[in-house]
Amino acid sequence: MGINYVLSSSKKSLRSAVPLGVVIVVLGSGLRGPPQFELASSSGGVQLGTAGTYSVIAGTTVTNTGATTLAGDLGLAPGSSVAGFPPGIVSGSTNVDNSAATNAQSANTSAYLQAAGLTPATPEVANLAGLTLSPGIYSVPAGTSNLTGTLTLDGQGNPNAIFVFQLPSTLITSSSSTVVLTNSANPCNIFWQVTSSATLGTGSVFAGTVLALTSISADTGATIDGRLLAQNGAVTLDTNTITNPICLASTTTTSSGSTTTTSSGSTTTTSSGSTTTTSSGSTTTTPTPLIISTGPPAPPSSFTGALPLGFVASGLGLTGLGYLALERKRRRASDSSNKAA
């Protein structure tokens, strides 16, 4: 005589109810593990405006010794004393205490404030020699020299990558120091915001735009792929070469389909096909917004290293499904025994 198995009420309820394992899997699938972090700049970059065509801007005086060459314009406002040209050569225009110089100085001030306000800034050592830095915003403390050797800026293949160095005091580079640009790093998008004054050492090779609140001195033979822009003080030159970087316009596309390009003689095209051209006189690009990475993201402080709850719940779900499969197999075996009896 066969044995009849009777399912308990709890097991009967298991048939009609949604399997517990399935419920756990569904709940677990909506849970997240430790979030991933990205560091984004608070702005698309620093806008130079009409100051972008200038190799040198000063507030009080511009003084030169020797065969200095400026690839762009020279501006002075509100001062009125420019000396040493010639023998120095200005390839662009010389504007002294006129409306053009005043406008350029105003744009210089705006760019300085914008660079100073960018956040968050990564603290760096006072002497940047020997470092290779990725795009980002860096805070550099005062030191005897901020660059005694070679600093490498790695654009990581992005010509719109932005480097901003915020110096709460002075910027000083030693003789023969060098800033090297690799992997599409662009001098158009390198800015040195100096809260006091800047001094570039003899024979140094520098890249980027110096935005100094007070004064700037370029010692003998220093070369700059960028600009020297001082607000309230003097710019002093000595047989220097200042090559304004050629900055191509960048394009930003909005969700409406309109495209905006900002540069000298910028062109704005709307979705209706109309075109508007403005002449800012600036060769400064408007960089597209970018994500700045300063290294592998750190997990939140609350993360204990345990497995995420979603994984645990999914494991429990699989266990529940396994139990259901075994239960069904046992019931089929029971039914077969009853028929045989």
Structural description of this entry:
- With 341 residues, the chain is of the alpha/beta class.
- Among the domains are: 49-242, no CATH class; 311-341.
- It is built from four helices and 25 strands.
- It has helices spanning 9-16, 20-29, 99-117, 309-340, and strands spanning 54-58, 61-65, 69-70, 73-76, 81-83, 89-90, 94-96, 122-123, 132-133, 136-139, 150-154, 163-167, 171-173, 178-182, 190-194, 198-200, 205-212, 216-218, 223-230, 235-238, 241-242, 250-253, 259-262, 266-269, 275-278.
- Helix 2 runs antiparallel to helix 4.
- Mean pLDDT is 75; it is low at 1-43 and 250-316.
Structure, briefly:
This protein is α/β, with parallel strands linked by helices and 341 residues long. It contains 4 helices and 25 strands.
- How would you sum up the major sheet? 12 strands, parallel
Q: What overall form do the CA principal axes indicate?
A: elongated
Kindly report the average pLDDT value: 75
Q: Helical residue percent?
A: 10-25%
Which blocks of ≥5 consecutive residues have pLDDT under 50? 1-43, 250-316
The percent range for strand residues is: 25-35%
Multimeric organization? single chain
Structural class: alpha/beta
Radius of gyration: 32 Å
